[in-house]
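Protein modeling request. Please complete all fields; requests missing the sequence field cannot be processed.
Requester role: graduate student
Desired output: 3D structure, token encoding
Chains: 1
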Amino acid sequence: MVKSICYTVAAILICIGLFIFADWYLGNQFDEFSAALDSLYTKIENETATREDGYAVRTLWEDKKSKLHILVPHNDISYIDYWLSEACGLLYNEKYDLALGKIEVLREISKNLPDSYSIKFENIF
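Delivered output (125 residues):
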């Protein structure tokens, strides 16, 4: 009986630790991505962004998403890929006003997506 209780408590503590680590890790990954998006947004606003700037953000995202597939559903990752590809295409054609809107959507997604997978009361129940 005591052994079963100890194993149960140990499993619960391991799960809680894993959830806290996943929450922290997800937040860190999206903080870095958000910072890159903010920098790109500023460059697009000033109309100094080049396609290389967009591709640099895409390269950063490619690195991040390879590690996020464990924690984030593939549909959410594909959604970011879609918006980022559109923004890079618009930067390639120097359509800054349209690219600005796409980056704004990406900034909002990168702000809200980690919150939807974090340990919060509304996400648990």
